[in-house]
Amino acid sequence: MKPFITAIACILFSINVNAQSRYIIKLRDKGTNPFSIANPSQYLSTRALQRRARYNILIDSLDLPVTPRYIDSIRLAGGVTVLNSSKWLNQVTIRTTDAVALAKINTFPFVVSTVAVASRTNELEVPVNKMLDTAGTESFFTSNSTSSTESVTGNIYNYGASRGQVHLHQGEFLHNHNFKGEGMQIAVLDAGYFRYLTLPTFDSVRANNQIINVWDFVENNASVDEDYFHGMTCLSTMAANIPGVFIGTAPKASFCLFRTEDVASETRIEEHYLAAGYERADSIGVDICSVSLGYFTFDFASQNYTYANMNGNTTMSAIASDIAAKKGMLPIIAAGNEGASAWRYIITPADADSVMTVGAVDTLGNVAPFSSYGPTSNGRVKPNIAATGLRAVVANTNTGLPTFGNGTSYATPNIAGLTTCLWQAFPEHNNMAVLDAMQRSASKFTNPDDRVGYGIPNMKKAFSILLRKSYTQQSSVAACIATVQLNVKNDHTMNVVVERKQSNQVAYTLLKTIAGTGNFTNKNISFTDDLASTSGGNVSYRIRLDIATDTSFYLDSLTVNAPQSCTATENKIQLNPNPVIDVANIIISRTAPTKINIALLNAAGRKVYETSYQQPAGSTVKQINMKQMAAGIYFISVFADDKKISTQRIFKRNN
After folding, report:
1. Which residues contact 431 (CB under 8 A, 6 or more apart)?
2. Which residue range forms the structural domain that includes residue 574?
3. What is the pLDDT of residues 46-63, one digit of tens each?
4. Considering its fold, how many domains does the chain have in total?
């Protein structure tokens, strides 16, 4: 989509199709390919292979590079320059004005078709302005300006001008808990990244080597700093790190900068470039692709799409976007800026099935008039969610300091950065689980509409959704002791709170708090509850996670049954197990409050354990750890109000 077209961008050209010089050569197969599915390390990085293993994604024929012999045959057909190839779409783009060479290529048995898609650059008399988005030229911050906002809120970052677009999603919650994008990779696919190598906006990412890969698919070189500004302004919403002035949504992520758009024209070859960009991102092992591009009208009217084509299954760019998702990446794509135009609807690849399509709002949640309407032409909810794209804060092209910009192009990287930080916390969940959590956390999940889809995501809620998804629990009851085992992700700022409700109670009461420890990882946590101290019957527990002072939510609940034998209907003593290996349980039931003494003697009559306590009416379980004691015969004596009421023999064995 030319980084998104305004009304004045729709300039029509009368160019003879016969003058076109760039073509897409569609191939029949990947026959005689020297690469194999059995050896994917030839064409996929270790990181890419690790992602496939983590999410059980099979290597298939789409992963195989285009057959080199086919490319060589096309190149040697005559006056032909091969531009690049797409293995997912199994096609090659070329530049040629050699009609004989083109005719020869059409005779190759491995060629399905040749389609003219673009003219020679010098045939375009007037450049087409295809950028949908606008960015201001005046900075509203000076280089020495500061803000005290964050000193009041206590956030780890002093966001300065960008606070509103982060706070709209409670994004500071992720940053405050150390999820800033570390270890994650984002590919930005756009029209150029003008001056990203010198603007102060990117001092931090440059110093920390966070730009890990750069490629220009239009010019086939590794330089994008001199090209159009649009990709740079999109990048700034994620990568900026000027404390007190401008902080992006994923300031610690690593970035790939791919130029797939040629702002001088609008042709379908750019959809091919987009597919090639996705493929490079996939082979590197990228997690999220931020795509502020889209297509519906072209320089050649014969190439134009209709709204009926916006069904997620027709266009090259939508098909490539869905394949990118199939390979484990999460494409996040701008809905388009056609809401106030005659077209009105989303544009491709925003119509793709398995991507996160983003509409635009302001920092108060008001819908931007220009944001494209959904749904897809076959009725699916689009956009999926919305983020700040109206008066979004982006980098000034001259100073790098913050200015305002408008467009769904800016809403897209804003939310792509936060989604990256969320996924950093939960790498065990795949791209579709993350997309689902973002939608479920959004403000209109129960009643989506055609402007913002499921609404504005809330990162606290999305975090809780994925944390619950990672959580497991199980319980057991033995000797009047309920044991509950939990597996929960937490860290030193996150406490597990257990609440209990007995069968004769209406409300839950606090049972215990288990303090979190260490870094954010899965922890095995267990607690026990003496059912003899309850009223019997069903005993219910609720498990809550308190995250510092930020948020609190229930993970799950469970119910156990307290056996009738655990409640005191008479004075009695029970001992189990016998023989014992590790722990001996003494169940003492009293119908009235009693002072209890317990003594454990070995066979020689020497006391090896003793305890005393005041027992209320009811049953109590006391445990004696005998694991380290020698095997043999022992005697347990129980005294009630200083009178011996029981002596029982117990046998200790080692296994």
Report:
1. 55, 325, 328, 329, 330, 354, 423
2. 568-652
3. 999 999 999 999 999 999
4. 3
